[in-house]
UniProtKB/TrEMBL annotation:
Residues 1-20, 79-109 are annotated as: Disordered. It comes from the Eukaryota. It comes from Pleurotus ostreatus. The keyword Signal does not apply. SUPFAM superfamilies: Zinc beta-ribbon. One of its GO terms (cellular component) is transcription elongation factor complex. Belongs to the ELOF1 family. It is found in: Nucleus. Transcription elongation factor implicated in the maintenance of proper chromatin structure in actively transcribed regions. This is Transcription elongation factor 1 homolog. Residues 88-101 have a biased composition (Low complexity). One of its GO terms (biological process) is transcription elongation by RNA polymerase II.
Amino acid sequence: MGKRKKSSRKPAPSRQKDPLDTTFTCLFCHHDKAVTVRIDKKEGVAQLVCKVCDQRYQSKTHHLTEPIDIYSQWIDAADAAQREGGSSRRPAASSSRPAPAVSYGSDEE
Ligand SMILES: [Zn+2]
């Protein structure tokens, strides 16, 4: 029997239905390409989710928002949450934190 099994090599299905669907490395479980950012421009929201450890993050978007922006925001938010959730919990009495420099709405570009 000299029949060789061919390795069936299919061409990668190019399903580019959503070019804004982008993957990143997870901050928490460190799995590569586990984090998916999906931007819904119609709704003006972005959703980030890790398919491995199920971390989630949601943010508003504007017309220039890119997946990497949401990913960066998530890193900042996770970082801030880690600092606040330290061993010593103090009441957030002081208003010393700077206002977020985010401008939604009509920015002239
Ligand atoms: Zn994860």
